[in-house]
Amino acid sequence: MKKLTLWVTGLAISATACAQNPTAVKYGSLITAADAKKHLSILASDEFEGRETGKPGAEKAANYIAAEFKKLGLQAPVKGSYFLDVPLVENMVTVSPLTLNGQSFMNWKDFVYQGSAETKVNSNEVVFVGFGTADELAGTDIAGKVVVWINEDKPEAGKEANTGYRMNAARQAIVKAIMEKKPALVLAVNEGLTAVLARFNGVNPSGAGRLTIKKATADEKKDTSAPLFMVTGPVADAALKASGKSYADLKAAAKAGKQTQVIKGTAAVTISSTTKDVKAVDVLGFMPGSDPKLKDEVLVFSAHYDHIGLNLRPGATDKVNNGADDDGSGTTGILEIARAFSQAKKDGKGPRRSVLFLGNVGEEKGLLGSEYYTDHPVFPLANTIADLNIDMIGRVGEEYVGKPDSANYVYSIGSNMLSSDLHKIGEEANNTYTKMKLDYKYDDPNDPNRFYYRSDHYNFARYNVPIIFYFNGVHADYHAPGDEVSKINFPLLAKRAQLAFYTGWELANRDNRPVVDKADAAKGTR
User: Which domain holds residue 207?
Assistant: First the structure.
């Protein structure tokens, strides 16, 4: 694919765009492909070992970001430090083979369990509950039994059903209803999981236990809910063997009506766990605003600096998941934007509002760093006017490969969820300066991919802080060793970072903060 060098200049002004601000153009032009390549070549190098949260590579990345913030003259806002400790605990879970009617299945090969409950399951009854609708669950005794549930949306006339394995809010409500009936084990079946698990072949891609935020109270109650296993079709076939029908047969029947039934069959699995504390930090660089009336208001630029670490798959020749795009590109974007603002500050042109540059840890483990920051903010969220989150801006996503605008687009997610002001500001910044295609395909809380819930902006949105999430879309190297620096389109990375800068420049300098005037779409669960 041909790479186009796309620089923002102050020379050409579209007839339909607002007049460019020469000061903004001057500092936006400091965001360059060359400087971005310098940062990313370090952050996504093998030396940083894939930057997995809690591992030495992530600590190296945090130290690098903090050193850059210091060079730029940003303040260290956490009691004189650039680091906000994020107290995490690692839950090391051991799952025995799952045995169903004499057949054995392995975690991360045939199913996935990512919970932390310790339990031992021995059951002689399996209950098929179809799509788990209220009608299917009504009067059905599943206490102490193994439940087989179709983890898809039930088809409705005139409506396209979401058949992906990622659970939306409606399916999470079904899981809650199932759990309230006290089953021993839930098998959530989705045949699309087969292709995902083929990449792992029985090896947990994180190579470690599940990380969670450590609770403040020592007497926290342990998870006593039934374990939920995400399983493939063959696992369901084994569980339902005594019915004389395949999972596909029962699924087809469930589409037509209620097919709940109790089936004799054996199921056994043992889950045990241990825990240990894990060191992790968010990295914060702060620039105080210049306007006495506005400096208490804070604009946040965020990106996660962690990735998924070493490649532990058997026989792998490339041992490092470098995460150049995910999210080395976003972290690099933040450093470039910080450099532009810092030079403006040195020249006496600093922003009227304060700006926080936030490098989050633990995003790949469940948005943990941003969750901790928003639950324990260094600057009050009531004074936080917006979060501009950058997660994957260095590549061409699979839907744009070969298209004429492949080097001049970005997905914009969430700008219109909470604030019509923020959406207009983002549009005007693009029309005035960068003139990219803003693709809103994923700007929907009901998007089957659930991108709105899958990066750090979500934790700001749940507190009604307006957000924009800049994203290039997934590609063949997503969460794979092939996500290398050599595949980054640096001019495109720089242009996308410039869009975030220009949007932020307007937010930091305009008279009024963006109003929150939209329905709260952020109350959905991820």
Answer: 91-276
Please give the pLDDT value at position 118.
85
Residue 3 has pLDDT above 60, yes or no: no
- In this structure, the answer to whether residues 350 and 448 fall within a common structural domain is yes
pTM for this model (two decimals): 0.84
| 400 and 477 co-located in one domain | yes
446 and 349, same structural domain? yes
Question: Which residue from 342, 391, 337, 405 is spatially nearest to 32, judged by alpha carbons?
Answer: 337
User: Omega of the bond prior to 327 within 30 degrees of 0, cis?
Assistant: yes
Per residue in 93-111, pLDDT (tens digit) is: 899 999 999 999 999 999 9
Q: Which residues pair with 78 in a beta bridge?
A: 81
Residues 207, 230, single domain; the answer is yes
Task: Say if residues 318 and 309 touch (Cβ distance below 8 Å).
Answer: no
What average pLDDT does this structure show over 440-465?
Answer: 94
At 319, the amino acid letter reads: K
CATH number at residue 188: 3.50.30.30
Residue 29 lies in a domain: no
Place of tokens 């596909």: 248
**Rounded Cα distance, 163 and 171, in Å:** 11
Alpha-carbon distances, residue 364 vs 343, 369, 391 (angstroms):
32, 10, 11
Q: Encoding tokens for residue 189?
A: 């079946």
* Cα 482 to Cα 323: distance, rounded to the nearest angstrom: 8
Q: In this structure, are 208 and 224 located in the same domain?
A: yes
Q: Let me know whether 124 and 254 are in one domain.
A: yes
Confidence band, pLDDT 50/70/90 cuts, at residue 75: very high
Taking alpha carbons only, the member of 74, 64, 254 closest to residue 152 is: 254
Percent of the chain exceeding pLDDT 90 equals 82
Domain harbouring 463, CATH code: 3.40.630.10
Report residue 151: phi and psi, to 5°: -85, 65
Q: In whole angstroms, give the CA distance from residue 188 to residue 247.
A: 12
- The answer to whether the beta carbons of residues 504 and 388 sit under 8 Å apart is yes
Q: Does residue 331 contact residue 304 with C-beta atoms inside 8 Å? A: yes
